[in-house]
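Design job #97: recover the sequence.
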């Protein structure tokens, strides 16, 4: 995700220094877009007005932001750290507090739209943080976001992304059950998709994953391993705030079964495999 997002910033004319924990990826990016590659997050962040990071989970956020040679150790006062990772609201609050003590702004800004959204610059960006920091960053984030929205104080971006993942998982399961039903009922599932996509059942998942689900192809989107990471965050937050998430908990177990079959890197639409093989 970060590779094409950084590419949009370069195309918009911003001076860029990049860092990746796999140095070859950073060198490849520089060869394609220009700028410079750094050997550490601190080096990459030095003298920058805005620092964007996009990693895997809470521990990665801590390591890249506040660990030894982390971005915050290289950032100057008045700059802003923007975290695009899908992580917990708790780690957002934690990193924001460290940033604040150093006179640095912080925005938690997870994204939705998948690899295609990142490549096309059409991501939805859900932001938590201070209004002044958001105002400074908004136009830059629009380089790769079609919708950039401040949702509230620090952590609000992550909480909004949890809502997104809860809804996405439910939509995928509904689509999987419907397509499996269509096939077992003797219908042409592609024709079914063509018809119902023009009515109330239409969804992003239907438009972008329906045909590949019918074709039993699962190499196009967000991986099951990452969805389970996200759903674990949702379930933990639900336990903390008292929100009942019975369907989300069930779907988490469905994805666990996909992982057990060796499908951890399949995209999330692979839920239909459980129904086809039943």
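Job complete. Output follows.
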């Amino acid at each position: 995700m970060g590779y094409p997002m950084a590419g949009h910033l370069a195309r918009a004319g911003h001076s860029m220094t990049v860092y990746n924990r796999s140095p070859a990826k950073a060198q490849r990016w520089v060869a394609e877009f220009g700028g410079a590659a750094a050997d550490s997050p601190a080096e990459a962040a030095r003298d920058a007005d805005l620092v964007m990071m996009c990693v895997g989970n809470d521990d990665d956020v801590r390591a890249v932001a506040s660990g030894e040679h982390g971005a915050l150790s290289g950032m100057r006062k008045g700059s802003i750290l923007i975290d695009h990772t899908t992580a917990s609201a708790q780690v957002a609050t934690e990193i924001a507090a460290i940033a604040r003590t150093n006179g640095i702004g912080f925005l938690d800004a997870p994204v939705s739209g998948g690899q295609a959204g990142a490549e096309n610059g059409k991501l939805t960006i859900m932001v938590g943080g201070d209004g002044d920091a958001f105002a400074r960053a908004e136009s830059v984030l629009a380089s790769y976001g079609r919708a950039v929205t401040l949702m509230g104080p620090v952590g609000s971006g992550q909480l909004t992304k949890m809502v997104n993942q809860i809804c996405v998982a439910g939509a995928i399961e509904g689509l999987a059950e419907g397509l499996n039903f269509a096939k077992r009922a003797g219908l042409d599932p592609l024709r079914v998709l063509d018809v119902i996509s023009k009515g109330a059942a239409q969804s992003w998942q239907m438009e972008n994953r329906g045909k590949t689900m019918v074709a039993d192809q699962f190499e196009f989107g967000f991986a099951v391993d990452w969805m389970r990471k996200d759903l674990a965050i949702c379930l933990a937050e639900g336990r903390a705030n008292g929100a009942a998430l019975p369907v989300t908990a069930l779907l988490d177990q469905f994805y666990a079964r996909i992982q057990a079959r060796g499908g951890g890197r399949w995209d999330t639409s692979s839920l239909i495999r459980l129904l086809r093989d039943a």
